[in-house]
Amino acid sequence: MRNPMPDASQGSILLAEDDEAFASALRRYLRQTGYRVVLMGDGEATLQSLLETNHHFDALILDLLLPGIDGREVCQRLRTAGCWIPVIMTTALGELDDRLDGFGYGADDYLVKPFSLAELTLRLRAVVRRRGIPSDPIQAGDLRIDPTTRQCWRGEVELTLTHRESQILEFFLRREGLVVTRASIGNAIWPNEEQVSENLVDQHIAHLRKKIDRPFGRHDLQTIHRVGYRLKTSDS
To answer: Domains in the chain, start-ordered, CATH in brackets?
Structure first.
């Protein structure tokens, strides 16, 4: 098969595949089409790479049957952590229930092996293009976040938040007015950690308050004694 001409603007792909021969051939093809490709051979490394690099990749090609943490759990943990990188799941399992299962865990597309490399390229472009469509901001009072760009605002003032802080803010905005426990925050923001200390959660909440409340004379992110926290905006 003749390879398409390279396009240096294609973007960066994280390829999670444990079949070394297949992964090598796929990586070579993607590089020839203009993509920058990083290869991971197991689910744990894939999660760490995405959650520690601030979602730098444009798309993830994710094998379902990875060793350790399989593709379904990888995808689910990414979505729980607020990582909405486009995911194409690949597997030899082609039954309808298997495909529906993959979509249920948050995959954007599903390819059954063996597949055409040209088709993979077209699907990659499609999921990346869809990912570029702006999402509706999530808002409570005058606090809002764009889940696509991770930009955050208090009124007309853009806030400078770390990626983790923006995840926590989005978590609260989606639950405005509800009391949430430290454990639920920990499970959502650090899904690949077996146990998250309450002190770690408290530290991140304190840092977030310094950016979204204190400069504006607000007290929207409230501590609920012996329970957890609540976001109750003054404008809502």
So the answer is: 11-131 (3.40.50.2300), 138-231 (1.10.10.10)
